[in-house]
What we know:
CATH architecture of the largest domain: 3-Layer(aba) Sandwich
Distance between the termini: 43 Å
Strand order of the largest sheet: 7-8-9-10-11-12-13-14
Number of strands: 14
Number of domains: 2
Helix content: 10-25%
Order of helices and strands: HEHEHEEEEHHEEEEEEEE
Radius of gyration: 28 Å
CATH topology of the largest domain: Rossmann fold
Mean pLDDT: 84
Structural class: alpha+beta
Number of helices: 5
CATH class of the largest domain: Alpha Beta
Shape: elongated
Amino acid sequence: MKSRVPVLVVIVFVLAALPVHAEYRPVRGSVLVLLKSTTAVEDPEFRALMLSVIRVEIEDRELEMIEPETPPTGKEQPLDSAKKAGTEFALAASYTMGEQAATFDVTWYETAAKTKSTTVSRKSALDFTLDVTIASAVVEILEGQKARILALPLKPDPNAVAVTPPDEAQVIPVELGKDVVRLEQVKPLLISLGAGPLISTFSATQYIQDLYFGAKVAFAWRFPMLGGAGGVGITSSYQKYYVTNVGHPGWFYGIPVGAQVQYGTRMPGAIDFFVHLDGGALIWYWDQDDGNLVNGVVWFIAGGVGLVVDILKNFGIAIDVAYSYYPLNPAFTFLEPSVLLLLKL
Length: 345
């Protein structure tokens, strides 16, 4: 249990450093948050982290978060607690701590309608993705109640001393602050274009002895998945290298074309990580020195990991380290580090 304490403490300190605005924040209603451990022992670090994440997401939707002054009794239902506290909604969350991971369930209640939403469950490792996983569960609950929340009118400022006539009213935007755990919006289309060296490995080093370069392009459709961003699309590249130590040496040209599946993080800030798996057909031809031209098609498979740095809202760069396998005779394998330009639309 001690190994996870520094991670939770750092996350709690980061959340505690968020700017707190003393001015009036317009709200449509209030939410009673009931948080408890499924065991007899409460975890103070995890409890503080979860309450901070819940507060940010609730207040970002023009709601006020209320914590009970005294813990509810075991027999008291969330709707009864919310009615007693005078709140329009209640959010009940329970958690179970393990040595390496935490699981938690979140349920939404509407006091007046006496309704209960479907419970959202999550499991997360006790690392720096924990706050993002908690946020994804709360976001899923709140997005399902978006219409009900927006149907409530904004409450007037209780401290207001004067009312400006409607014809002279000015709309003053209220800064809500930045949410370090708010999930980045997933742009549906990702276009990547880049180049890098082709480093032959294993038996391929006997036939491809120099360093060559290749270019690659990919188009992917992305969507939110498991607190990150999944993606499916197509990928292709161009390769050229000289093959030696064979009966007919010559220049080899390859164009891999295939499908790609990928998954990336949606972390706060400009840096994210991703993995991908590619597979399809290698279209090749071999321009031998003796004048013969041989061509064909074989399957291929490749995979890689990488790091993304966002430069602008829709533009970034990435470093991708991939490994590919081409079952030629003999088989060619390459380590393919590359630099990519990314466009998110």
